[in-house]
Amino acid sequence: MAIKVEMPKLSDTMEEGVIAKWNVQEGDEVESGDIIAEVETDKATMEVEVFDAGTILKILAKEGDAVPLGKTMAVIGEEGEDISDILEEAQSSGSSSDDTEEQETADETQEEEDYDPVFEDLDEDGEQQTTADNGRIKASPLARKMAEDQDIKLSNVKGSGPHGRIIKRDIESYEPSKAPAAATVSREDKEHRVSQMRKTIARRLAESKYSNPHYYETIEVDMQPVWDARKQVNEISETKISFNDIVVKACAAALRKHPEINSSWYGDKIVEHGDVNVAVAVAIDEGLVTPVINNTDQKGLQQIGQETRELAEKARNRDLQPEEMEGSTFTVSNLGMFGIEEFTAIINPPNACILAVGAIKEVPVVEDGEVVPGKRMKMTLSSDHRIVDGAMAAQFLSTLRQMLENPLGLVL
User: Where is the Lipoyl-binding domain (predicted)?
Assistant: First the structure.
C-alpha cells in the first residue's frame, strides 16, 4: 500500500518547510530510518526520515519549494503500484491557490477588454482620442489602479489597448522620462528568497512590537571596574571572558533579586519563572537568533563564556536545534562590538524584557573635582508594561549597574 510522506512539524512555530535538498530520487529504494530530505524550517535545517520501507514512487516538491505543514512531499510504495488517487488528492489540495491566480488573471483580462466603443471618440482627423468628453483619460480600471499605486500620471502613458485605451501592460512597461545623467551606470536589482527563519523572525517581532506595550529605560554604567577585572581574569583563565559574558552573568544575578522581571504574560496570568534562562542574541546572515543559556544564574563566567561561544558557532553554521532556542526568560542583545552607543530592542516573546547593550566608550568624567578619562556604557531595558512597571524596571537596572560597577561580587 502506498504511503504519503508529509511535511512533519519540526519546530513548535513551524507552519511550512522549504525543501533544501533531496537525498533520494524517484525509483530509489529506502528503508525505515533513512534520511530522504533536508528541510529548512523557521529555526534550522532539519533532516526528514522515513518510517516505512519501499520505493520512492513520486516526489511532489522540488528543491526550493515551500511545503505547508502536513502536505505530501513524496509517495512511497511498491514499484509499479497505482498512486493516481494520492496524486489527485495532492493536486486538488493545491488547486485553490491556482484557481485564485487564474481568476485574478481572468478578471484582469476582462477589465482590459471591457470597454464600450460607443464612448470612444475620434478627433477631426479620425485619430483615436485618449480622453473622454469630460477630459478623463481612457484607461481600464486595473490600469488606473496600478497607476495610482505606483504614482504614475496616466497623462504620461501611451495606451496600446483598443482605440488608444491604457491597459495593464502599458503601466507595467511604463518608464518615466529621466533627465540625462553623466557617467551613470545602471545596476541590476537582486532578489533574495525570504528564508523560513527570516519569515518567522519578521512575524514574531511584528507581533511583539505591536501586541506588547513596550517602554524603554536607559542607564549609564561606569565600566572601568569591569575593564580592570576582565583583564586580570583573562591573564589567568584558560577560557577568555568577554564583556558580554560579564553582562549576561550580572543580568542573571539581578534577575534573581528581581523575579518580576523574569516573568511572562499569558493572558489571564503572569508566570514568574523559577529558573533564570538568559537568551543571547546572535547575528547571522538571515537575522538574529537567540540561543539560550539555561540556569544562567547557577553558572560561572567561564562556563557562560564557553556555552555562549559554542551556541554562537552553532547558530552561524545553522546547526542550532529547536530546544537550544526555547525556554528563555530574559534576553540580552549586544551591539557594542559594532560601535553602537545606544539602541532599543524589541522584546523576545514571551519574555517580559530585553536588554540592549551599547559600546564601552572612553569619555571625560569628573572625579573628585577633576576631569579624568573614564569608560562608560549605556544599557536600555525594553519592558512589557503589562508585566513590568516603570519602577520595577528602574530598580532592576539600578541593581544591574551596582553589580557591574562592583564585579568582584559576580565571581564570589
Answer: 2-77
Let me know if 385 is a catalytic residue.
yes
Q: Within its chain, how far is the Cα of 350 from the centroid?
A: 16
Residue 129 has which C-alpha cell? 482620442
For every residue of 327-339, DSSP letters joined together read --SEEEEE-GGGT
C-alpha cell at 75: 509517495
Q: What is the CATH number of the domain that holds 155?
A: 4.10.320.10
Q: Is the dihedral angle over the CA atoms 395, 398, 402, 404 positive or is it negative?
A: positive
Residue 246 has φ and ψ, to the nearest 5°, of -70, -40
pTM greater than the 0.85 cutoff: no
Name the residue type at position 216. Answer: Y
C-alpha cell at 306: 564557553
Within 8 A by CB and 6+ apart from 105, the residues are: none
C-beta separation of 155 from 166 below 8 A: no
**CA separation for the pair 255, 275 (Å, rounded):** 10
Average pLDDT over residues 59-83: 89
- How many domains are contained in the chain? 3
CA distance 356 to 52: 49
164: containing domain? 115-172
Q: Is 87 helix (H, G, I), strand (E, B) or coil?
A: helix
Catalytic residue among 163, 192, 214, 385: 385
Q: Name which residue leads in pLDDT, 222 or 82.
A: 222
- ∠ CA 306-351-42 to the nearest 5 degrees? 75
Q: Which three cell numbers stand for residue 17?
A: 518547510
pLDDT tens readout for residues 103-149: 444 544 554 444 444 334 333 334 334 555 455 688 776 788 888 88
Same domain, 128 and 248: no
Residue 194 lies inside a defined structural domain of this protein = no
